[in-house]
Design brief:
Blueprint (H helix, E strand, L loop, with lengths): L7 E10 L2 E11 L4 E5 L6 H8 L7 E6 L2 E2 L5 H7 L1 E4 L11 H7 L6 H6 L5 H13 L15 H13 L5 E5 L7 H14 L4 E5 L3 H7 L2 E6 L2 E6 L1 H6 L1 H8 L2
The structure holds adenosine-5'-triphosphate.
Adenosine-5'-triphosphate binds next to helix 1.
Organism: Methylobacillus flagellatus (strain ATCC 51484 / DSM 6875 / VKM B-1610 / KT)
GO molecular function: ATP binding; ATP hydrolysis activity
Protein name: ABC transporter related protein
């Protein structure tokens, strides 16, 4: 397969922090509409890989191609504009705005909170807000102030804010941390829906949740891939049990 067939092609990606290789000659390929979960022990390099893809951390060597475009030389903003969205663990929603307004300000044509709050509500924006609100199960609470949402709903709203920009690759770092069992199930359904027309990379420690969402699992250990494949194969892998799942 040539690189052009993948949404994301990571090759020989390396980053050193004072000589310590947090990511070490990593190769990883993500298909269109694939939901990949990255697991591994603390310090394995999972978050650093997402930081490298979104441009928050600059690589020491190697390449990251998104739809065949090299990302390692682009700024964080350019990477967002290229179609890569990233959600961090702590939600960064506007607590004093409504659900509707949070989605509206995330519409790409707006420029920051003030620019977009005062621009005309074109049909296009309204349609997009309703479409995304439905996807994140918040259609009925569009007028609610974000501060009043549950922890799970805040996480979904932030996913919705990213979806407003229609990213072709969405990356989520521990999306169900702190959620109730019901919210975890609903998040699994949400992710299964949204990967139908985009690729998604999720870092997660909750194996029950991983089973519900992963098309393929990549196990990282010391900045390298220890195993990769369908969940059942990875779970039965002795090396994986030894360094991660057995603990
Ligand atoms: N900016 C940095 N400067 C120095 N060291 C760093 C930096 N970022 C990450 N590291 C180190 O790189 C290693 C990998 O960290 P990373 O956060 O990617 O691991 P992780 O797999 O996401 O772990 P966790 O499951 O605990 O979140 C760790 O040893 C960490 O201390």
């Amino acid at each position: 397969m040539s690189n052009t067939d993948f949404v994301l092609a990571i090759e020989d990606l390396t980053v050193s922090f004072d000589g310590f290789k947090a990511v070490d000659k990593l190769n990883m390929y993500i298909d269109k509409n694939e939901l990949r979960v990255v697991i591994g022990p603390n310090g394995a390099g999972k978050t650093t890989v997402l930081d490298l893809i979104c441009g928050k951390t600059k690589s020491t060597a190697g390449s990251i191609k998104f739809k065949n475009r090299e990302l390692t030389k682009l700024s964080e903003h350019e990477i967002v504009r290229a179609g890569v969205g990233r959600k961090f663990q702590t939600p960064s929603i506007y607590e004093n705005l409504t659900v509707y307004q949070n989605l509206e300000v995330s519409y790409p044509k707006g420029r920051g909170v003030f620019g977009s709050l005062f621009f005309k509500r074109t049909d296009e924006v309204v349609t997009q807000v309703h479409k995304i609100a439905k996807e994140i199960m918040m259609e009925d609470i569009l007028g609610m102030e974000a501060a009043l949402l549950s922890h799970g709903q805040k996480q979904w709203l932030e996913i919705g804010m990213l979806l407003m920009q229609e990213p072709e690759l969405l990356m989520l770092d521990e999306p169900v941390a702190g959620m109730s069992a019901k919210e975890r199930d609903q998040t699994a359904e949400l992710l299964n829906r949204i990967c139908q027309n985009r690729s998604v990379i999720v870092i997660e420690h909750d194996m029950e949740f991983v089973k519900k969402i992963a098309h393929k699992v990549t196990v990282l250990h010391q900045g390298k891939i220890l195993a990769e494949g369908p969940m059942d194969k990875v779970q039965a892998n002795e090396k994986v049990i030894e360094v991660y799942l057995g603990h």
